[in-house]
Amino acid sequence: MRMVDIITDKRDGKELPQEAIEWFINEYTKGGVPDYQAAAFAMAVYFKGMTQSEAAALTFAMAASGDQLDLSEVEGVKVDKHSTGGVGDKTTLILGPIVAALGIPVAKMSGRGLGHTGGTIDKLEAFTGFQTEISQDEFIKLVNQNKIALAGQSGNLTPADKKLYSLRDVTGTVNSIPLIASSVMSKKIAAGADAIVLDVKTGSGAFMESVEEARELAGAMVDIGKSLDRKTMAVISDMNQPLGRFVGNALEVKEAIDTLNGKGPKDLHDLSVTLAAHMVVLADKAANLEEAVKLVEQVINNGEALKKMKQFIEAQGGDASSVDDSSLLLNASHLIEVTSEKDGFVSGMKASEIGRAAMTLGAGRATKDDEIDYAVGIELQKKIGDRVQAGDVLAVLHANQTDVSEASAIVREAYEYSDSEVVPEPLIHDTIV
Ligand code: URA
């Protein structure tokens, strides 16, 4: 096979056979296809798209390009959840204990990641002593014993995706629905999921700003999952403002604990319950969504989900006393208010800017070697729809530095106002099955 033929066929809009896609991914992973040809291929896909079977073949080949987690010794349907990313999104911390408390195995591989806050692992490391460097045997033992464990991502998971994603980043080809869909799904497949619930975000703080684009991406991912015999569904949820009220690692853990205690903010509670309920349905533990919602609410109300969180943190060496008393988690040394200079109703909040402000306080990493400050972040006191008068507190910065002028200015600028009342967008825009 010759790479140039694969590129020209795609350029001319022909459907590529599975063998051609597999050959490309194998060769590219080994270094047999150079970056300039892979870039030309990505650009051809950007313009010509991919059929459902091409996207499934690309996903499968990328999933098989490196280590794949063998979860065959874990009993039950392994349901994974993936969010396309958003500011203040701490649902994984809430869903894991909920579904594990319902007897569904949660064998989660997570990354650290760059961005406004750390990834799920970084957030959990806000519990002193929490360990994610565990062997595969230990990981499987913990999942079978407690129904939940979380490990750091193997360095060799989907190497083809890693290479292709970095290349797309510098060749203007990130924003291609089939390439994004296969990139995300290849990681889920390699991590051993039997079934996948996708939370595709839409709005000013999301990758897909319009509901239409989010629907298209969700549809492509659901189609890939089904083509590869994984039960897959997607929820399209709103990211026009951060989820919940807190952005930052320990702050998000505290809010997740509050939510497991039944005392979380409504948006975070509702989205967590919805996603958890879809996971319960895919795991065949409920006949329909309504029944699943009842089961989920039950383990929140009777404290089983919170108990599961404690067991999970303890089993991986963390100090679980902070689950009972979240004030024991790291606290920042300064609380600094950001006040409004305007009157009106909050009509918009640039979620990505709130994320950027959290980063300037040290909550996230700009490069992979940066250190995270677990204690710092932002507490949003006003959200879309709230009435504000000049001088009111919009947000509180939790900082370990006294000069927070940059973060304050970014937060203040992120707020948009209207003279008339504002109704926030619905939390859930659509469900794709
Ligand atoms: N996230 C991914 O994992 N891959 C993409 O291509 C885009 C976002």
List the helices and strands and how they pair.
Blueprint: H1 3-11, H2 18-30, H3 35-48, H4 52-63, E1 79-83, H5 91-101, E2 106-110, H6 120-124, H7 136-146, E3 148-152, H8 159-169, H9 177-190, E4 195-202, H10 211-227, E5 231-238, E6 246-247, H11 249-260, H12 266-282, H13 289-301, H14 304-315, H15 321-324, E7 334-339, E8 344-349, H16 351-361, E9 377-380, E10 387-388, E11 393-399, H17 405-414, E12 415-418, E13 428-432
Parallel strand pairs: 1-4, 2-3, 4-5
Antiparallel strand pairs: 5-13, 6-9, 7-11, 8-10, 8-12, 9-11
Helix pairs in contact: 1-3, 2-4, 4-9, 4-10, 5-11, 5-12, 5-14, 9-10, 12-13, 16-17
The structure holds uracil.
Uracil binds at residues 165, 174, 179-180, 183-184.
Quick overview:
With 433 residues, this protein is an alpha/beta fold. Helices cover 45% and strands 15% of the residues.
Protein described:
Catalyzes phosphorolysis of the pyrimidine nucleosides uridine, thymidine and 2'-deoxyuridine with the formation of the corresponding pyrimidine base and ribose-1-phosphate. This is Pyrimidine-nucleoside phosphorylase. It is an enzyme of class 2 (transferase). One of its GO terms (biological process) is pyrimidine nucleobase metabolic process. It catalyses: uridine + phosphate = alpha-D-ribose 1-phosphate + uracil; 2'-deoxyuridine + phosphate = 2-deoxy-alpha-D-ribose 1-phosphate + uracil; thymidine + phosphate = 2-deoxy-alpha-D-ribose 1-phosphate + thymine. The protein has helices at 3-11, 18-30, 35-48, 52-63, 91-101, 120-124, 136-146, 159-169, 177-190, 211-227, 249-260, 266-282, 289-301, 304-315, 321-324, 351-361, 405-414; strands at 79-83, 106-110, 148-152, 195-202, 231-238, 246-247, 334-339, 344-349, 377-380, 387-388, 393-399, 415-418, 428-432. It is built from 17 helices and 13 strands. The chain has 3 domains: 3-49, Transferase, Pyrimidine Nucleoside Phosphorylase, Chain A, domain 3 (Up-down Bundle), CATH 1.20.970; 79-324, 3-Layer(aba) Sandwich (Pyrimidine Nucleoside Phosphorylase, Chain A, domain 2); 331-418, Aldehyde Oxidoreductase, domain 3 (Alpha-Beta Complex). Strands 1-4-5-13 form a 4-stranded mixed sheet, with helices on both faces. The longest helix has 17 residues, at 211-227. Strand 4 (195-202), helix 10 (211-227) and strand 5 (231-238) form a beta-alpha-beta unit. The protein is α/β, with parallel strands linked by helices and 433 residues long. The mean pLDDT is 95. Residues 165, 174, 179-180, 183-184 line the site of uracil.
